[in-house]
Every structure is written in C-alpha cells, then in structure tokens.
Q: What sequence folds into this?
C-alpha cells in the first residue's frame, strides 16, 4: 500500500501516500476561505478518494495558520440568494445514498472512507461545518472555533442546527450558535467538539497515525459499513437499526475480511485486510 499520487487543483492540494489521501485547502493568504472554485474542487477530491481502491482514509487540513475561516467575504458580499439552492451544487440523485447526504456540504458522510479533519487553526462558519460532517476531528492546540453566522446576520446554515447538537448537546449548540463566541481547542475538547488536541507541530503525524490504524489494524470493510450505520442511525428507530445490523452481519460473516480477522488472531500475526 505504498502507492503515491498527487493531483493538481487550483485551490487545494491532493496527495495519496501509503493508502492515505491528504487534501489540503490551499489559500493560506485568505485563511483558506471557501470560494465556489474551492467548493467544487473539494467535492471532486473527496469523491476521487472515495472511488480510489488504494485509499483507506482521508485527511482534510489547511495550509498556513487556518483550517478554513468560512466563506470568502468577497464572494459572500455579492452572493445572490438563489445561489444557496442552485442546481449546480446538487448531484444527480443517487439511489445508493440517503438524500440527506447529497446536499452542498452534507456529502462527507456518504464518502465510503473515514474522513479525518486535522484542524490546524481557525475553523469558522463553513469551515466548522466541514469538520462536523467529518468522522474524526483532531485539533492543534492553537485551533480556534466559531460558528460566526449570527455575527454576519445569517442563520444556522447547511444543517449545523441538526449536526452540532448531536455532537455537543443542545445547550452547548445553543450557546455556540446564538452567541457566535470563539472557543479554543481546550474548550472544544471539553465540549466533545473534537476527539483529541495535540501540539500543532504533531497534528499531521497524529492524523496519519489514526489514518494508518484505520487502514491496517482494522477491516476497511467494517469501517465502511459502521460509518454508514452511525450516520444512518439518527434517521432510524431502534428496530430498524437492529434489522439493518442483522442484514449487514450476515454479509460480514461471508466476507474476506471476516476470514482474515479470525485467521490473524489465531495465527498471532498482523492483519492483512483486503477491504472485501
């Protein structure tokens, strides 16, 4: 799994190394603020990683001192209201994906690989939303978080009113959304907003260590199915969740990764999962 690949984009860097796709938002002079071009390129990069059989985990981070400071103010200032629901941001309906995960920013959960946000600096507005739709959030000790919408005369955008309370609880979500106050990495950890806080110079190494574990120590097939289960669960009753799990369990018992999971344990050797 030592495949190495780089792809050229205008606003981000994309590289695959050792089964890990690293996507770096690359507008450091603008604190990696989102533009329409970056939005389009980011979705393309994540979908490319999702289709790549050599990729087992995705890391999303930012160049320079910010992760993503939200929408670029120059574009936000002239954003036409109709752009929010413009057809260009929607994909053709995919019967294999829940409709909820086909919108402008909520497509991260539909990616078949785990997404790790390595939050190297400020994550505000849409930048924060991207981290919330990720599966893991690792923060540098210098990271700062803010919803920011109320300070711009906006509302809780793109499903953040749905996802944020599920991560930090209703009371904390109310606080963060209505006050728009900034919080540091330590408070974000205490609120459960992030999984871990690490020194800034160790952030990417920590993210790669997690990505490597997801790609080698555990079954990529199991990770793919469990990610789907976790994101589907809020829409299901307990009975539906159990029924879905039972169906998936039957298929997992017939999978190559199940056979390898038993074999490497009995033989007391490192696992060699195929992802099938």
A:
């Amino acid at each position: 799994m030592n495949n190495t690949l780089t792809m050229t984009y205008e606003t981000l860097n994309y590289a695959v190394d050792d089964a890990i796709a690293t996507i770096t938002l690359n507008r450091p002079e603008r604190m990696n603020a989102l533009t329409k071009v970056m939005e389009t390129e980011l979705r393309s990069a994540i979908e490319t990683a999702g289709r790549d059989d050599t990729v087992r985990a995705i890391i999303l981070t930012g160049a320079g001192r910010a992760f993503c400071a939200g929408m670029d103010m120059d574009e936000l200032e002239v954003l036409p209201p109709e752009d929010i629901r413009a057809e260009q941001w929607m994909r053709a309906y995919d019967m294999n994906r829940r409709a909820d995960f086909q919108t402008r920013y909520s497509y991260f959960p539909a990616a078949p690989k785990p997404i790790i946000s390595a939050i190297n600096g400020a994550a505000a507005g849409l930048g924060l939303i991207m981290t919330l739709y990720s599966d893991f959030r690792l923060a540098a000790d210098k990271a700062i978080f803010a919803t920011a919408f109320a300070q711009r005369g906006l509302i809780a955008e793109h499903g953040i009113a749905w996802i944020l309370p599920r991560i930090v609880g209703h009371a904390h979500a109310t606080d963060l959304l209505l006050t728009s106050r900034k919080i540091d990495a330590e408070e974000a950890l205490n609120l459960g907003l992030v999984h871990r806080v690490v020194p800034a110079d160790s952030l990417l190494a920590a993210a790669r260590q997690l990505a490597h574990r997801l790609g080698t120590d555990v079954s990529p097939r199991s990770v793919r199915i469990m990610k789907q289960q976790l994101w589907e669960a809020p829409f299901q009753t307990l009975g539906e969740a159990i029924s879905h799990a039972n169906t998936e369990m039957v298929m997992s018992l017939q999978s190559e990764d199940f056979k390898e999971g038993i074999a490497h344990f009995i033989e007391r050797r490192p696992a060699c999962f195929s992802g099938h």
